[in-house]
Amino acid sequence: MAVSNSDLVAGWKEVLTLCNLRVGEQVTILTSDDSHPQVVATCQIACSQMGAILTLLALAPMNGEKALSRDKSGFVGKTALETNRVALAALKSSDLIIDTMMLLFSPEQEQILKTGARMLLAVEPPEILLRLLPTRADKLRALAATACLKQARRMTVVSDAGTDFHCELGEYPVLTQHGFSDLPGKWDHWPSCFVATWPNEKTSQGRIVMDTGDIILPFKRYLRSPVTLTIEEGYIRRIDGGYDAEFMREFIDSFNDPQAYAMAHVGWGLMTRAHWTTLGLYDKEATIGMDARAFAGNFLFSSGPNTEAGGLRDTPCHLDIPLRNCSLSLDGVAMTQRGKVMADDQR
Question: Do 328 and 342 form a contact (C-beta atoms < 8 A)?
Fold first, then answer.
């Protein structure tokens, strides 16, 4: 159902307040041809009403001739900032950046964040943004999980469907998303609430069984039959199953990049207002699937790049795969049990 401009302006004001927006700060709204016009327009109004010094920066879209879909996460890491020194300089001079284009995984995003700029990605449609409006409680829940993940040295994931996966931790930082960017140099995503990290190199091992009803993004499809991934030394070595397995193999192979088969971040969802069912109610081009990525208790793992964590795997192929009904443990302590978050301070 559509939302009114006034409601979305009010939502933006809540989020910008959580982002610690102050009068006189330099705010840049980054847009492209496929940015949602209502999201951009209402953000502009909210920023102006809150006393920000506002810049609208529009960049041309890229990679349309390479990507296999219109989804913003379907071909990542390459943006118009690669050759646009003027735009990059403007973003580096900003206090807060609202990204409606999607700079994620690009080297330019990391350069911008190192200047101390705060950055918030917002590319979902208005009704999803409002339903998953972030709160301070979301941040506390994510920080509690982050504390557990930072001190952990081994992650184990099992399921009744047959998943039996483990990896060593500590080589890479923890990714904490709670829906707003309130600290210098912080990137976040509205809407989101999950934690993740990247396995130590060559330590991911075992079997991941994607069961019927689990989701593959950016395919935005629910599996109709199980798919089994064999993981060895940090890479997906085999993809077994029926049609869905063949589809997944063909998609990854189309990038002609061995790094596309690497295991990337692993973690779990913490958003209590997100729903596994939401993706089935939307046209595929209307959402990037943040409900699926963030719903509480999922085991979210990904494949492809690790540049976001300071690694060297710079591949445009990135899959996010949230699984239900898994039990995830850190150093033997359960974080989720059969798809339910265990710790009280994470609920």
Answer: no
